[in-house]
């Protein structure tokens, strides 16, 4: 969608340069130059080789020679014209071409004057230069998706056609059968003439063609780009799979749990010491779900009501790293009696203990009919946090220390001190936050001026400390620990501090944090320190 900013239509009358409004056209009769304010296609800034065609008509009763003069706005440079003089019989006309190059973004125009005998007139072409379309693509067709699935992304390009650096605020929207879950990043600064990419994440619902749109705003200028997303039903007879129960799998926030998700938890702090007139202490935290974790996998399923027959049972399988995994009952296929023509929840607990990391996973659901079976599957990721190899003890962590697991594809799993975990997928150079996650993970360059708090208990004050990879890790991932973070209070927050984590060259940033607040704070540390010490102990 383009937002067009039009320039005023200006007429320069005669050699004295007096200005007349285009709408009045109080000019001497005898010649007519057209068009009067037509729009040329949008031009890319600082490009060459364009032309504008004008028609000059002699409306006098005798043959007249007309002098042709061209003018242009400041951001357009005319390079020539096909005629400097034309001689026209009464009622005769001729086309005159003006050639031009364009410069900086803005609303431009090209004008041609004709003067001869008793006649004087001008025509004008409006030329938009990079004022629209700084978000692309516009209507490109995305890969077809299957109904009731998600975790998809599309990439948009933001181009700054201006002469100075601009900061763009980004939002995403979608039509009824598509749900945009967020755009990453939410704000970007782009140098003059440069471009950057952003990623919009989305889920799909019902069949049909939907639209995914990203809108960028800078100052008073707004533009949006879009993808057309075809959403198809699965193979006829295959069960419809709603993957939404697994969407929260990528953001495992322990603070959302009721009764600690019925896991055994415990926190123990040392006696506080004082520095800078404030108490400091170290807290150890235990979470039972991070010891020998066996993940639960869930989806919603309903039959294809248009198939002409109903299944007799559903079959449920989970494939991780291309291998079908066994459930706690020892089988790799769970069978469920057909419950009826409505959504039903299928699920099972895997009997495999994985190391901390993110693994490719396929959820396979099969409908069994008297005539055979028809299968539908959804590909996603399995996120696992396993503290069996913790350097403190099984299931124990320092409560206010984060760690990052960088995956083989460059994506990152951030693990909080309370056992929470957030998975940031990576598309190109951009980390994509999961649905419902407000922080974003950014690439930062060493020496880029990112400041850390001056003091955190138990660690050096020399900045970020990256320890050696954990030799106990058995997973195929780069496992790193980091001893220092930066946390700052957002100006708008009322429920707790926002946090920014400097993790080597990764920075996790919460939106709109107050850069003037330097006091070390941590929500997870505070929750652990305030937790009653009569919680269930470790098992």
Summarize the main sheet. Answer: 6 strands, mixed
Which strand-content bin applies to the residues?
over 45%
Report the count of strand segments.
44
Low-confidence stretches: 1-25, 445-505, 512-539
Mass-distribution shape? elongated
When the domains are counted, the total is 4
What does this structure look like?
This protein is mostly beta strands. The chain has four domains: 10-129, Sandwich (Immunoglobulin-like), CATH 2.60.40; 135-232, Immunoglobulin-like (Sandwich); 240-249 and 294-381, Immunoglobulin-like, CATH 2.60.40; 264-290 and 386-530, no CATH class. It contains one helix and 44 strands. The strands form eleven sheets. Strands 13, 14, 16, 18, 20 and 21 form a six-stranded mixed beta sheet that branches. Strands 23, 36, 37, 38, 39 and 41 form a six-stranded antiparallel beta sheet that branches. A five-stranded mixed beta sheet has the order 4-11-10-6-8, with no helix packed on it. Strand 38 (421-427) and strand 39 form a beta hairpin. It starts with 9 loop residues before the first strand and ends in a 9-residue tail after the last helix. Mean pLDDT is 79; it is low at 1-25, 445-505 and 512-539.
